[in-house]
Amino acid sequence: MHDIGLECPRAKTVKSLEAALAAQAEVGYPTIIRPSFTLGGSGGGIAYNREEFEEILKRGLELSPVHEVLVEESVLGWKEFEMEVVRDQADNCIIVCSIENLDPMGVHTGDSITVAPAQTLTDKEYQRLRDASIAVLRKIGVDTGGSNVQFGINPDNGRVVVIEMNPRVSRSSALASKATGFPIAKIAAKLAVGYTLDELKNDITGGRTPASFEPSIDYVVTKIPRFAFEKFPQADSR
Q1: Using an 8 Å Cβ cutoff, are 150 and 162 in contact?
Q2: Dist. CA 22–CA 16, nearest whole Å
Q3: Is the pTM of this model over 0.70?
Q4: For 36-74, how does the pLDDT look when each residue is reduced to its tens digit (9 = 90+)?
Q5: DSSP state of 155
Q6: Would 228 be classed as within a structural domain?
């Protein structure tokens, strides 16, 4: 990401307490600790002070098969946005939809209320994320198909970091397709066999325009998670 002028949350890989404390001093509290090569995030955690930091670090180093952890800057409370991008082999790129998470960073996007298109971005901010998303696809090497790029924005100073990139059709792609009427999976399949966006018809306009036209919607679509409490007899839904 640094090669294309974009930031990720600051982080450093360490193998000892001394190196971890030095890394933590650079990123501050709260601090995210991620053990290397463990499943489901086991051994990781968020430390709000030195005592918690050393406790989680010790556990993480023990659980990591290579005795290594990532000490990472926390982006808890930041605003979270997603961009659904489609690219073809001729380097035509379009943004199908922008998605905004109502819940801040720290709440999984699958558990968060989301709105499409994004509502609190200025045009300048939107264009910045648009350009960054396309740059990420090119750098990662997604030559054809759909991808999802996620950003965190610090509400205090506007700092933007790339937090995740899925080089495939994802859960968010289904929401973007539903919100705009643009069939991402169908288009991605056709791009994979050699078509370009300008050769494909745009289903939104009944085929009057090519798929290389970015969808523009004058309404808002909201996704609200449904928690299946009936599957967990001991859970309290209140």
Answers
A1: yes
A2: 10
A3: yes
A4: 999 888 899 999 999 999 999 999 999 999 999 999 999
A5: T
A6: no
